[in-house]
Each structure stands twice: as C-alpha cells, then as structure tokens.
Amino acid sequence: MKKTAIIKSLIASATAFILCIFQSYAGMYEYVGKMSSNCMECFYIEELAPLCLIQFILLFPFCYFVFSGAKIISRTFLILLAVGYMAICVFINHEMFVLRVSSWSTFTTSEELFYVFTETSWAILLSAIVLVWLVMKLNKNSKINSQ
User: Fold this and answer.
1) Buried b (16+ CB within 10 A) or exposed e, 117-147
2) Is the dihedral of CA 123, 125, 131, 134 positive or negative?
3) Cβ 142 vs Cβ 42: under 8 Å
4) Distance of alpha carbon 30 from its chain centroid, rounded?
5) CB 67 within 8 A of CB 139
C-alpha cells in the first residue's frame, strides 16, 4: 500500500511539474523570447523549471496523504488539488511575467495580475483539468472515488 501510494504520488507530482511547464510556456508564449531581468543569458525554461519544482514539492505530500488511505471526501480533495495547483501556477506565471516584462517597464501589481490572468487562465484551467483527471484515474479503485 505504501509503495503504491508513493508511486501514485510521484506520478501525480511529476505530471503537475510537466503541466506547470507546459501551461506557463503556452500561456506566456509571447514573452518566452524576451530577455529576463534576472538572468540575461537564461532561456525561459531555465528560469521556469526551478519555479515549477515548487509544484512537485507541495503536491507530493498532499497526494501521498490521500493515496495512502486517508479518508477524505473525493470532491473536497479534487477541489483542493485544482485550486492549489491553479494558485501556484498563477504565482509562477506572475513571477515569469515580472522577470520578462514588468521589470523592464512600469506596471502596478494589479496590472501584472490582470495580464497574467487574462493571458494564462485558459492554460492554467486546461492543465488543472488534465491533472484532476489523471489523479482520478490513478485512484480509480481506492477510497477517493468510493465515497
């Protein structure tokens, strides 16, 4: 049971990491080629990958708790998973926007968040749906779906 929970948690967390990279790249595609204020020689992916590790680190214990047999209502878990994933994605996209765009100009925080929401919400939502679907598939025969 514990080994299976670890493997399922690793799969879910690794998928969240990959989806985080794809959603940021797709949603912020316009700014991928722009120079970063933090590292002028760095590619977009070089700055993005360490930020997406946050997704992996935060999601793994959460998934392990549920996959290891914790009794939690499935809708509650899936909502927490989706909301948490989307919040971290917004944070990561905001950081990338700051590094690539707003640090070279004058943006207020509300303008930064507006641009991030309007340009990346579709990618964040789509990747969250894929992640929730995968977790449901991984946990098909366990307690999360039987409650």
Assistant:
1) eebbeebbeebbebbbebbeebbeebbbeee
2) negative
3) no
4) 19
5) yes
How do the residues of the chain divide into helix, strand and coil, expressed in percent and rounded to 5? 80, 0, 20
pLDDT tens sequence for the chain (147 residues) = 688 889 989 999 999 999 999 999 998 888 788 777 777 777 888 888 999 998 899 889 888 887 877 666 577 888 888 999 999 999 999 998 988 888 777 888 899 999 999 999 999 999 999 999 998 888 775 544 444
pTM of the model: 0.84
* Count of domains forming the chain: 1
Domain enclosing residue 97, as ranges: 2-142
Report if residue 104 sits inside a domain.
Answer: yes
In a domain, 55, yes or no: yes
Q: Does 147 reside within a domain?
A: no
Tell whether 24 is covered by a domain: yes
d(CA 94, CA 132): 23
